[in-house]
Amino acid sequence: MALPTPGVSVQTLARVLLESWLRGDPTSLQILLNDEQQAVPAELHSLTVQFWETLVQAKPASDRDLANGDAEGARELLLSSVPRVLAGGQVPVVPTASDPMARAMRMVLLVEAMGRADQESQAGRTAQVASELMDLELEAPWAPHRQALLDWSLNLNKAQEGHRLHPEGVWSSLPYMVESGDNLVGIRKKFVTQHPELCLCVGLLRWVNATGQYLHPGQTLRIPTDTPRVDVYLDARLLVYRHGSEIVRAWDVGIGKVGHDTPLGDFVVGDKESEPSWPGKGELLPYGHPDNPLGTRWLGWHRGGEKSSFGIHGTREPEGVGERVSQGCVRMRNGEVEELFELLPRGARIRVHP
Known about the structure:
The protein is 38% helix and 20% strand. By secondary structure, it is of the alpha+beta class. Strand 3 and strand 4 form a beta hairpin. The chain is globular.
């Protein structure tokens, strides 16, 4: 007697749906849906086919009886929203933490919403959608799709130039009118004294206000109030810089090689050094020395009030970025670590995820 064949998992179907849409090729999805050995449940089979066909045809889905339960209701809501999203509407917010299928469907819709917003030069919407899309992927139960994350990072980084990193962007701030004799160092000191909860650095103030070399009396500056922080995702080999919960910058990074794993957990930015020296074997190697691997910038990590041996730094070997190549630190391309160095204040939180 033949043993019963287990059906395909919802997670597998969700992952293949997302991958097929990203590739623009339904072949893998069709194979999975038509595989009798996989035995996709009829309701899930119907939902998947209708979702794909509605996306392609941009027409309302045919009437369906809503299944019971939160997961099925979320999926049906996403299915019914396809024409509105493709016409420029909002992607519905539904719970996805315990439902991989709803997660994949929502991500597909966000991909389309991001593309439309980008074509229409809506920097703020493009950035916000890209941030949400990337977080859904980084928190997904499947292995991260690195190339998709890198592609979305390009969209996000460009869009944020006109949103979170632009003086006219929509972001939380306090106003300050420049007085005679002011400079950014003094203004930063004034605000962190008056508002100890703020995490600021001069580079961040300069960037979001697009200030030149000099300030002018009467000039109005915006002081960002959302806390800057960093998350490093080791499996994805991606570093994201956030203001509050929104991703503002995302970069490919190198991480610790096997046997020299990058440590997990929470750290804070301690020492920041431009053109850093490196303590080699028995001697301090200056910046530019051929055996100094740190590149142009160093952001040291502290934990529990103590300095650690780990940090974020540049490199003289950019080809290693994106791989497991370091002694445990996070390695970035020099131009990218220089941006992060300007934007990330001392004391900012860094969280390293698996």
